[in-house]
# Entry
Amino acid sequence: TKTYTTSLGVLAALAAEIAAEPVLLRELHEMPGALERQLGRGGISDVAHRLADFERLAVLGRGPNYATAFEAALKLKELAGIAAEPASPADFLHGPVAIVNRGVPVLAFAISGPALGTVTEALGAVRLRGGTVVVIGDSATSPDLVVESVPEWLSPLVAVIPAQQLAAELAALHGADVDRPYGLTKVTRTR
# Structure
C-alpha cells in the first residue's frame, strides 16, 4: 500500500521535474491537500456491505489508473480473500465480460479524462447484462465512491485510497485481521 502510493508520488515528482512545466509542479504541490481530503471521505462501509457476499470480482482501470486496478485487485486478494481479477476495459470486453452472467461484480475506476470513454463503454456492457457495478471516480462520473478532482495524470494517487479502504473494510466484514493477512509474508527469501 505504502509502496504503491510512494512509487506513484516519486514518479510524478520525477516527471514534473523533467518536464520543468510550472503547471505540473503546481498540480503536484497541491496533492497533499487532495490526499488528506480523500482520506476523510466516507461511503466505504455502504459499498463494502454491497460487496460482502461476493467471492469474486473484476477490477477495471485504464490509462493512468490501469495500474491502480492491479493494486486494488491485489489488496482485495491479500486482505479480504476475494478473487479479484484486474483488466483494462478493452480486454474485459473481449471475453471476460461473460463472468458478469455468473454473478461476478465489477469495480471500475472511472476518472474524467481521455481514458473514461472505454471505461464507460465496459460498464454499459456490464449493466446490460444485469451486472453489479461499483464505480470509484470523480464527481463528473456519478460514482459510488468519490475521489478528489485532480488532474488525470495524478488521479491514481487519490483513486487508490478508496480501493485500499474498501479492501480493509471487506476484510473486517469477513473477520480477517488486516494487520496479519492470511498467507502474506512481509519478507521474501530467494536463493
